[in-house]
Amino acid sequence: MEIATLLNTHCPLTTADTLESIMTFVGGSVIVSIDGAAWNSFKEIKLPAYKLKGFYHNCPKSPYRNVALGLKTLYEKFPNSDWYLYTEHDCLFASDQFKKNLTIADKQDIWMLGNDGRQERGKYQFPLIEAIINEKITTCHYLLGSCMFFCNEFMEKLAELDFFNKLINISSHFTEGYFPSYDGYDLSEHLYPTMATHLGGDIGSFAAWNQVTRAWTGSYSKFPVRWQPDLDPNTEDFKDASIMHPLKDYNHPIRIKQRKRRKELWKNTTQWLSE
Predict the structure, then answer these.
(1) Total number of domains constituting the chain
(2) CB within 8 A of 42, min separation 6: which ones?
(3) In this model, does residue 273 exceed pLDDT 50?
(4) Are 147 and 87 in contact (CB under 8 A)?
(5) In this structure, what are the phi and psi dihedrals at residue 98, rounded to the nearest 5 degrees?
(6) What is the pLDDT of residues 184-229, one digit of tens each?
(7) Which domain holds residue 189?
(8) At 87, phi and psi to the nearest 5?
């Protein structure tokens, strides 16, 4: 299974740690998209991935223009990948077990996979997006934006529509994540799942976190991914975890533990190859 990854960031330290986890468990086809406001912090840093200078954003929410630019570049650079991963610097990968879920998703015509998947009928309307695709959008869907998988067929359809370029051009005068008729936290969380279902696919969900009841559902022991707060190292350091979020601090105990695991894994792999 070939997976191309877009890692969106503005923070050098956690980026290096997350990138290493991606290279270990996801694959080596990676683009690191850097907020234009943070470009100077990354300019001299060598990474084992292609560095993409994004648009100036400098805002904690809705970096949808950089997401669109990054996905466009990712598909152009790796057009034959089976899946495309969008993720962020405060996410961490701890195993490749998620690939089993992607294999199942392939068989079920699921075009996007992530966490907190749901339909939000009537919550948002997208007149500018309807103008881009020249069609009426009737339903709205959601996935948490920190880690989203896109299948090749979906990316191909977006490319055929020239969707990424049109979105970037139509929003060229918007700043700080603003988008007309949208007051949510991150446009991409609604936009791409909605487009996936509109164009004929379906969305799937690993697990979900209820911000009100503060309870997990689904396969959360493998996919403890939520918006906030940071994962608790005492109660949420799940031994079977494959993808984790958020882990914003480079020295978070879970990150430290996972770095040691990866180091040992690479050590054992090197020894095996040399025998």
Answers:
(1) 1
(2) 12, 15, 32, 34, 51
(3) no
(4) yes
(5) -60, -25
(6) 999 999 999 999 999 999 999 999 999 999 999 999 999 999 999 9
(7) 3-274
(8) -145, 175
Give Cα separations from 15 to 92, 97, 147, 192, 210 (angstroms). 10, 22, 14, 24, 27
Q: What is the dihedral of CA 160, 165, 168, 172, to 10 degrees?
A: -140
Question: Which residues 6+ apart lie within 8 Å of 272 measured at CB?
Answer: none
Mention every residue, 6+ apart, whose C-beta is less than 8 A from residue 71: 6, 84, 86, 150, 155, 158, 164
CA-to-CA distance for 10 and 37, rounded, in angstroms? 8
Long-range contacts of 235-243 (CB under 8 A, 24+ apart): 240/95, 240/97, 241/94, 241/95, 242/25, 242/93, 242/94, 242/95, 242/96, 242/97, 242/98, 243/91, 243/92, 243/93, 243/94, 243/98, 243/147, 243/206
Over residues 225-244, the mean pLDDT reads 97
Give me the residue label for tokens 């077990």. 97
The enclosing domain of 213 has a CATH number of 3.90.550
- Residue 15 structure tokens: 């980026």
